[in-house]
Amino acid sequence: MRVRLGFLLFAFVAPLLGACATPPTTNFPELTFRHKTPIRLAVGSVEVINEFRMPFAAPNVEHKMPVAPGPAAERWAQDVLQATGGPDKLVMVITDASVTETPLKVKKGLKGAFTTDQTERYESRISVRLEIRTPENKRRAVAEAFATRSATIAEDSTLADRETLWYGLTEKLLGEFDTAIRPQVTAHLGEFLR
Prior knowledge:
Helices cover 35% and strands 30% of the residues. The strands form 2 sheets. The protein has a 4-stranded mixed beta sheet, with helices on one face. A hairpin with a 5-residue loop joins strand 5 (118-133) and strand 6 (139-154). It is built from 4 helices and 6 strands, in the order αββαββαββα. It is elongated.
């Protein structure tokens, strides 16, 4: 009887202890790009195709992030690309939106006990192709751009610290992508700019 009571007590308390050990998830503001200058193009519609599929396995970490680069790029298209009218359509193809984690070497022994090392590096990449397509779906013009961004995190970071770093990584990555794609649009889709 005493054993059964102890088991019941453990079964009841253990989940509570686990819940207390899990750090709270931080709430982040919606990541938008409405403050960016619109890119107006003489097309009838804008379509977004995200070809990147999250692996949901190491070394990739997109599925753990508050805002992954893929959905952020889709939001960029929604906020920035504007159709002013015309027979053609603009197709934005996201070909890469990955974020990978690489373990870093840390100091060991007495020296390691008195230092705070960076334990992981995160490499993010966004790659996009903008295509002007005819009503018959033939490509008339193409502009491409990509951006990369990396960051490291310290060994004593909390889950909230890591989520904050990931959010900032995606925000900066898309900011650099915005800077990279605009001259490509001017160079290759210039005749459609309005």
